[in-house]
Amino acid sequence: MSENTYSLQVAKTGRAKCRVCKEPIDKDALKIVTELPQRENQDYAMSYSHHVHCFKLPRGLAAVSIEDFVEDYLTDGGDDSTGPLFPDKKVEVIALLEEAAVKKKGSKGKPKGGDAGGEQTILMRVQAAVKAQEVEEKEPPKKKVKKENGGKNDGDDEVQAMVPIYKKHHKKKTEELKDILRWNKQLLKGTKDFVLFKVVDGELHGRLGFCPLCQGNLKLNEDDLENVHCGGRYDEDTGTIQLCSFTAPRAGKKAAPRLVPFFLEEPSEEEKEAMETERAKIRGEQEGDLKYEDNQTAMELLNQAAGMKIDLQNKDGIQKAANAFLDLVKGKVDLPENRNSKMEVGRLMMSNNDKTPKEIMMAIFDKYGFVEAKAENAKTKVAAVQASCANPANAALILAFRECSGYYMKEGNRNAGSTYVKAIQTLTDLEEEVTAENAMSFSKGKTKLPNIGKGTAEKMKEFCETGTFSKLEEKRAAHA
């Protein structure tokens, strides 16, 4: 039996989008909200909305009639502004749910390739295209009829590209398909159809890479084959998962990051090692020179440091060494602007006074990073967030909230960190640009958004006015 809960509600803003048709749910229209069970590593429950006429009973409730679902499972989500929705809306809701159920008749729960009334996933379209090809191949030439879609064989370019890959793999056992995913470091769970789709998608586009925001593992969800999601990243220092709400299209110009090749046979030891090296480089987990081998600035500074002679046994020698390091890294390493750079370098140098000058230089890299790399990384992150949010103008605000959330998570304060994560989820779906003039309106009245309280709105307003907010600057200073 399904553990999800379902409620009938009235849309308050017109900003929510239907989980099935992806179209906005009009303000004051009825919608069904599905709330998932709260996970152990989350401080909140996930939920999503449907038009009533798009909602289909889940497989866990397949034995339940529509009338019983409305009576026993669908709760009344009416509030003070709408009043109770039942029993007045009961007949209307049952009729709309029956309309949704009719759309999937005749195909064992899945709409046929030519059924425009049903919601078709990319996998369904591929399967329909494969069947159409098989029928076409069996028909005598004289009896072949012109297809209703003009001969395009039930799909777009991506569907047609997936068809031969699907035909190559669909007869394999689930464990064989999981082996392919295992070789490519992809998640294994899911039904056979879902596992098969991940193999087909991977062979066509490459294996899923890492989140551009937190460098966590990206994944597909079985109920959303059009988007790639980040489930967060495990932080070894705190022993917790840092939550992340990054989402990007699975394919297209703004698609999620991919890595190649996608292995169809078990990779060699050298190939496995190359994958691990690539992973470590993306996540910043490499050690020593390997971490900087592709960074020309870093290699030049390391070579210069290797030729340095320093004496840290007396005050004069320490000052000279600090000046020498500062002269080398100034303008290249991202030293903090709000503190004495010489003092910062001197402290770091003395905390590593048993190391060689080259090792001290690497410690400076590790703590502060590079000016060029920081700018490029920021540009990449902004582009990634712009691709995933409803209004690209809100990307910088989302990134600032993400940064602040990360600091709280590192401190072990998951409640505060989750507040920002939940706000990010709301801002990602917000089609309106947040400005200093409208920021506070999202925390109150008819325009209030979920997960946006007064304190969050004040930070949004401050960011729009100054490009930052005081709590973020406070955390940056504490974690510098």
From TrEMBL:
Residues 6-55 form the PARP-type domain. Residues 133-154 have a biased composition (Basic and acidic residues). Keywords: Metal-binding, Zinc. GO terms for molecular function: DNA binding; zinc ion binding. Residues 130-157 are annotated as: Disordered. Pfam families: HHH_8. It comes from the Eukaryota. This is Helix-hairpin-helix domain containing protein.
